[in-house]
Predict the structure.
Amino acid sequence: MKKKALLLASTVLFLACNNSPKEGESQQLDSASTTVTDSGNLTTDSSATTPFDITRLPLSTADIGDFPFINLPQGLEEMNKPMVRNYDVCFFPVDGKMTPFEGKLYKTFVSPKRREDFSQHYFEKSMANYLESVGAVKIFDSEITRAEFDRYNKQDANKGGEGDMGYPGSIIKFWAIRSADQGNIYIQYTANNAGGTLNVLQEAGFEQTITKITADQIAEELTQKGKAILYINFDSNKADLTAEGKEVVQEIAAALKKENSLNISIEGHTDNSGNAAHNKTLSEQRANAVLQALTKDGIEQNRLKSAGFGAEKPLLANDSEENKAKNRRVELVKTN
């Protein structure tokens, strides 16, 4: 009996020694839970996998500078004008599942400054070395499956845009930094022998900036500034007011009843998407729809004019979706 016990103990010791990490090898902890059955066999419970939680990462005190926190490696540059949004969504691979994170976003394609061949190895090594130096942790380094792409791609409003990635067959390297100064930062990049792609997101909560337009605000802007800029909702590509749009028109009517000496021109504007002639016609129809709704609310028609300018008078350059949204507007202009 003693010999059997001694033999069993020796076997356990031998297995333990052979399963220890070899010198120079890094050890990775499996997030799945392992249990021992009554018979002594090891089983893995894959359902117990710990979900990604950035608060589990070590806090980095490195100075990472200002957004987007990364200068491209020497000899490389942004291929086109990068996408920069104060608030947007970007999908990052967590355990192979493209997961949305929200905040300040930077996306770009990367190319060499000169026409020499792009070095995928140089780009990837430069990125990895820098990220390690500032305390970033690699979360994922593999490709997205076709099934996963099919599942998520229609959820991504920026799919196909500048700096887009996450296509089947390409390897994504995803890192995260829990920065003491800058909060949670997510970085992902991919490359081939022609060029690279880089995305950076600084996580931030959503702040609602839309407030209800009131008659007092409209009246004040018209009397003091001579103009009020409004965003009135219409049905897509139509001149029919939505329920929300009708509420805004009611506030305009209330403002004109309050300041009954005011006469206004209702001017419709669009962004530069689509056909210019169609946009101008649509803006005219929408301005007239507001005029007709105001007359139904009791405003004398001789106090009102309407006009449409399409994309002829943008407030901002039509170079981003955010700017285009600001150009799609109705202006009330004091005429007396």
Remarks:
- The radius of gyration is 30 Å.
- Residues 54-203 form one domain.
- Residues 128 and 136 are 9 Å apart (CA to CA).
